[in-house]
Specification:
This protein is an all-alpha fold. It contains 16 helices and no strands. α11 runs antiparallel to α12.
Length: about 400
């Protein structure tokens, strides 16, 4: 869908992905603090979980359009400059959110934040691939996600305590500061590697080419399964990061406990993703992805039974991500293994559309189910959807 051409260099000796892993840590910390508290701010403002869900879906539409725009941007401009500009706009947007007086002003600055963070993360993810080989792509992807998840482990706790003692909106200032550090760090590292002759090939991309690439992508049965695996995991993230913080607060706990629960959900990822990445390099991705979706489905269904014991329920909210740890480090490497080398560039953007699509569909489904049957209906339906993705995963070609 877009072309990138970067000479595979070693940014640091024996650790070529270190720069981007460190950026993943910083960006993950900022995103985690933001997404732990932002659903609570919206719920305070809109007074309805269903309306909050609709807001998330509308933002996801903007992200979807931004993902489509990435095709053009990555074909015309250096990813180095895209990362710099998008992080800067993210910093300014978050500062703007601190002075927004109503939901319209808030969404007006939230939309550019969401689009820019999507573009920045896409560019960083591509760089991880650029600096990897077929033999170590799964391990490098796992390292990237481990660093990101360290940020996601720390961020909710910090965000929860900042919200508790200085107000929920002050989290916007904290997150903007984290992205500013990420930007300055990246600029500094670019100075270090500027003499390594990182070149970015430009080529003209038209709407016709994008359309043809999309048709070609979905003619490939294995790439459809790749897309569905990513869609399934992104659906889980869309549901869990929106509704688990609200569910914990509805149980009567404060933002500090919300932070602990979200951070606890990252522990399975930190503990298991390295093992999963190494094992999948040897044994293939199929069985790990099936196990992951099955675990997510079963535990999500159990949320409805455990609601009578709040402590047990909030523990389950964290433990459920054992399932995600079996999928997250493999979904990108599955894409690279399923696509031909010459097709990776043009298909990567199409594959990544699974993220905004899941973030549109997940909250819309959640809004309808919560409105008609409450949280239990939403959890049961989500469990059934995740089970369907587990069944789809049985068709993966090793």
């Amino acid at each position: 869908m877009f072309h990138h051409s970067v000479r595979k260099i070693s940014v640091y000796k024996n650790n070529e992905c270190k720069v981007f892993a460190n950026m993943a840590l910083l960006n993950g910390l900022g995103e985690a603090a933001f997404f732990t508290i932002f659903p609570l701010i919206l719920n305070d403002t809109l007074k309805s979980e269903s309306v909050v869900s609709l807001y998330y879906s509308l933002i996801a539409i903007a992200v979807f359009l931004g993902s489509m725009l990435s095709t053009y941007l990555f074909s015309k401009f250096s990813k180095v400059w895209i990362i710099k500009i998008t992080l800067l706009v993210s910093v300014l947007s978050l500062l703007g959110m601190t002075i927004a007086k109503n939901i319209w002003e808030l969404s007006g600055v939230d939309i550019p934040r969401a689009i820019c963070l999507t573009l920045a993360n896409l560019a960083i993810s591509i760089f991880v691939f650029d600096f990897s080989t077929n033999s170590n792509i799964s391990r490098n992807e796992a390292r990237y996600y481990i660093f990101m998840n360290i940020g996601w482990f720390i961020g909710p706790i910090l965000g929860g305590y900042i919200a508790k003692f200085t107000g929920k909106e002050s989290v916007f200032i904290f997150v903007s500061g984290i992205y500013l550090i990420s930007l300055l760090y990246f600029m500094h590292q670019h100075i270090i590697v500027k003499n390594k002759n990182i070149n970015h090939k430009k080529e003209n991309i038209s709407l016709k080419i994008i359309f043809n690439n999309t048709i070609e992508y979905f003619k490939n049965k294995e790439l459809i399964k790749v897309f569905l695996v990513a869609l399934g995991l992104n659906f889980w993230w869309a549901i869990s990061y929106l509704y688990i913080p609200i569910a914990v607060e509805n149980l009567g706990y404060g933002t500090d406990v919300v932070g602990y629960v979200v951070s606890g959900g990252i522990l399975p990822l930190l503990l298991l993703e390295g093992f999963v990445g190494r094992s999948a390099d040897k044994n293939g991705v199929k069985k790990y992805i099936i196990i992951g979706f099955l675990f997510l489905s079963i535990l999500t269904a159990l949320f409805t039974i455990l609601e009578s014991s709040p402590i047990t329920l909030i523990i389950a909210f964290a433990v459920v991500n054992i399932g995600a740890a079996f999928i997250e480090p493999l979904k990108n490497s599955y894409f690279y293994k399923a696509s031909k080398k010459e097709d990776e560039d043009k298909f990567f953007g199409i594959y990544n559309l699974s993220n905004p699509i899941a973030n549109m569909a997940g909250p819309l489904i959640g809004a309808a189910l919560i409105f008609t049957g409450g949280f239990n209906a939403m959890w049961i339906a989500s469990a059934i959807i995740l089970l369907a993705f587990a069944i789809i995963s049985t068709k993966i070609k090793e």
